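Exercise 4. Each item below gives a protein and its sequence. For each, produce the structure-token representation.

Item: Transcriptional regulator with XRE-family HTH domain (Amycolatopsis jiangsuensis).
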Amino acid sequence: MDRTQLADFLRSRRGVLQPADVGLPHGPRRRTPGLRREEVAMLSGMSTDYYARLEQGRGPAPSESVLKSIADGLGLSAQERDHLFGLAGRQAPSAPPREERVSPGLLRLLDLLRNSPAQVATLAAETLAQTPLSIALFGDEMAYDGLDRSLIHRWFTRSETRHVYPECDHTDLSRALTAQLRAAYSHQGPGGMAEEIVETLLETSAEFASFWRAHEINTYYDGYRKRVLHPELGLLDLDCQLLFGSGRWQGLLVLSAAPDSAAHRKLDVLSAATQHLTA
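Answer:
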């Protein structure tokens, strides 16, 4: 159980809620934004003293039923709920044991997409497999050792990692990668690679530390866009689809471009060059 992070997370979630968000009257002027502890305790069906001790990093480890009540009281999303369980040292309802090998199903899909930029990666952003076109766009992300196996660690410690993306996108990417690492940290629990990355980055990157304190959790997308800078072809505006395997420990990321778009033509050029070099 990570008492410090659990307390910090609870305070942060309470602080962003307004009484109207949970069906409570606003009442008299409030000294600080967000709900009061007694309001969260009431919504969660527990004593104010017990909840206050959790926010202060004291008291016994909460049970699964208590955690579920708090998640309901705070109106947490499924991802935030799973994160709460992980911080309390409990197995989240939607978090089965981690798979150490590449999912066979995702690997078969990757093979079918060998002429597209695609890769399989873990929740901690360790790239496990890439198509040739993915390597042509991003470089060989499987060639790193130690914590650098994670793109998230490299993003905050190796400036050259950011050269693949326009500078104006760096802040949003930093936020997204930090949120992804927090999800991995929650799922893996103490002793995992994600915890080691977090501890290292908190000591070495002020930028990471500022985003980490925000407790942003949203990391899963039905679809989003990514702008990639290629040294010869320039900017490519790509659509991204992320398909998770069982348990969401590993995901298949596939990039594509709209037909007849500039990015589509650039991918065709890059694909032809990659196939020629492979041959």
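Check: The longest strand covers residues 234-244.
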